[in-house]
Amino acid sequence: xxxxxxxxxxxxxxxxxxxxxxxxxxxxxxxxxxxxxxxxxxxxxxxxxxxxxxxxxxxxxxxxxxxxxxxxxxxxxxxxxxxxxxxxxxxxxxxxxxxxxxxxxxxxxxxxxxxxxxxxxxxxxxxxxxxxxxxxxxxxxxxxxxxxxxxxxxxxxxxxxxxxxxxxxxxxxxxxxxxxxxxxxxxxxxxxxxxxxxxxxxxxxxxxxxxxxxxxxxxxxxxxxxxxxxxxxxxxxxxxxxxxxxxxxxxxxxxxxxxxxxxxxxxxxxxxxxxxxxxxxxxxxxxxxxxxxxxxxxxxxxxxxxxxxxxxxxxxxxxxxxxxxxxxxxxxxxxxxxxxxxxxxxxxxxxxxxxxxxxxxxxxxxxxxxxxxxxxxxxxxxxxxxxxxxxxxxxxxxxxxxxx
Length: 404
Description:
Elements: H1 18-54, H2 59-74, H3 83-98, H4 103-109, H5 113-136, H6 142-149, H7 154-161, H8 168-194, H9 215-234, H10 240-254, H11 263-278, H12 283-317, H13 322-329, H14 334-344, H15 348-378
């Protein structure tokens, strides 16, 4: 008997089973879609880097939303973002937000922190009030409008929108309008009104947050994202895949063991979230958002102006300068605000401490408060948002279609 059996000829080979034929067919069918996804992700990432060099706010999020809209309207991607990829991106964004919680910066701010913390809480109340008021005067439901007006953490707020039953497309639109308004106006106001003798201003500054691209950064990101995601689900937190990592990363960072997530991971997470939102757009959605733009601009400007008045009130009762108070309480654009603070000679430690606290508070408290307010009104948290067509047609432009 030979040691090795003779090799089979093609005639001797067993016929393929229906199961193997089906698997092969699925792989062949999926290959073009996979290639399109990979090509789209590469184009989006490179476009985001270009937008970052130009100085656009939230460049990777904006680039991904725009490319997602393009892909959705062209029909290149008949299927939406796989849920697991979106969940992973939420967890990464949660870790990024959690690492902003810097206990040392809070301690270094001293007594000046308390009045600015009060302004931060007032900013949260103002933004939610603006959101609910906006909902009463537009075809947008209350959850969507309230999340859209939250003053901070735009990427995280957009990432949680779907889990909270809001329309992520409208939330992303409102958040980006607010962010753009703040990022463009803050350096100009400080340069020409609040600190006219300061030099070295650009319209948008470089990122002041140091980002690690080390193995430790990747290890911390993976551990905090996975463990925090499990924690958020077990505790039944709203948008637990995001808020769980926020809490865990904040706790580890406060204990002195945190590490900034790598830049590439942050960019890819923002890219995934932007694509997921952009792929849900339709032509009707774009027409409706175009009609909403003037009202969104008005409410965003009013909220920003109210925050400026609160900052002025702080200076009337404390020794904090108007520049420090304004930059610390500006509702959004933390990196551009920090760059402006550095260029104007402001107290960067104080500005960073209050801005990071605002970011953390908005992401953690705003979704829970919205749920609590709506549950208190109705006795139960309502289900997914109905299309605006279900609202009074006399007060609404063309409706935003339901999620696909």
